[in-house]
Amino acid sequence: IKPCIAQKDVTLHILKTFGIHMSKRLGQNFLIDSNVVAGIVAAAKLTPGDAVLEIGPGIGTLTQGLAEAGAAVTAIELDRRLLDVLAKTLAGYDNVKVIHGDILKIDISREINQEKYKVVANLPYYITTPIIMKFLEDRLPIDILVTMVQKEVAERMVAVPGGKDYGALSVAVQYYTQPEIMFLVPPRSFIPAPAVESAVIRCTVRSEPPIQVASEKMFFRVVKAAFAQRRKTLANSLKAGGLDKDEIIQVLEQAGIDGRRRGEQLSLAEFAAIANAWTNLK
Length: 282
Ligand code: SAM
Known about the structure:
The protein is an alpha/beta fold. Helices cover 40% and strands 18% of the residues. Strand 5, helix 6 (128-137) and strand 6 form a beta-alpha-beta unit. The mean pLDDT is 95. Keywords: Cytoplasm, Methyltransferase, RNA-binding, rRNA processing, S-adenosyl-L-methionine, Transferase. It is an enzyme of class 2 (transferase). Residues 36-207 form the Ribosomal RNA adenine methylase transferase N-terminal domain.
C-alpha cells in the first residue's frame, strides 16, 4: 500500500529525497490536502476505465487519486526534473502514463487517442486561460473538465451579464460548456501556499451550443470587440470592430439591440443576434 501523497509530511519528504526546489515560474503549488484531492476526483464523476488527461501532475498528488479511482490516466508534465519523481511515486499504478511536454504545444490527440476523455487538473495559474481556451476551441473530444483555478478566474467563468466579472472568458466558457463552481480551496491546502484563494470548477461540455450562430468566427469577433474597451457603448465597440456608421445602424436594428448599451450587459443570445445580423450584411 502506497502512502497518500496529499499530505504535508509526505510531500516534503518526496521533495527532499529528490532535492527538488519548487519553481514559482512553472506555477508549482502542490496539494497537501487529501480531502481536496478526493473532492476533485468526485467532481470528475469517474467510472473505472475512464480516460483522463491530467495537466501538470507535479509529484503525482492528484494523479494518485485518479489512479486509485481506476481511471486510465495520461499525465503531461513540463518540468523534466519531476519525471524521475513521478516514476517513483506512481510506481505500481499500471493505469498511469506520464509524458514530458508542454500542454500548450503537445499534439494532445496523438497522446490520448480515445473517443472521449475527461480533463482533470490542478492548473499552473500562469497559463490557466490559454489552457482552458485551447481545450474548448480545438474541440477536443472532452466531456468534462474539472480544474483547480484561482477563485477569481472561476468567478469570471460562471459570471452572468451585468457584473464586473462578466467578460469574453465568461461568454466563451458558457458557449462551449456548463460551468459550475464545485468548492473553494484555501491557500493552506497547498505548499507553498499561493497568494490567492482557489476554486475547483467543473465544465460540462455541451453537445450543442446554447444559441444558434451563423458563424462562430463572427460571434467571437463581436464578443472580442464588445469587451475590448469595457467603457465603450456597443455602437462604438462595433465601430472599433470594423463596421461603418450605416452598417452599425443596420446590424443593431436587425438584432433589435440598443447601441447605447455596453457589451458587459449582453447575453450570449444577444451577442449571437448581433453576429448573425453582421453575417447577413455581407
Ligand atoms: N498536480 C499537482 C498537484 O495537484 O499537487 C501539481 C499542480 S501545480 C499547481 C502545476 C503543475 O503543472 C506543476 O507540476 C508544473 O510543473 C506543471 N506545468 C507548468 N506549466 C506546464 C505546461 N505548460 N505543461 C504541462 N505542465 C505544466
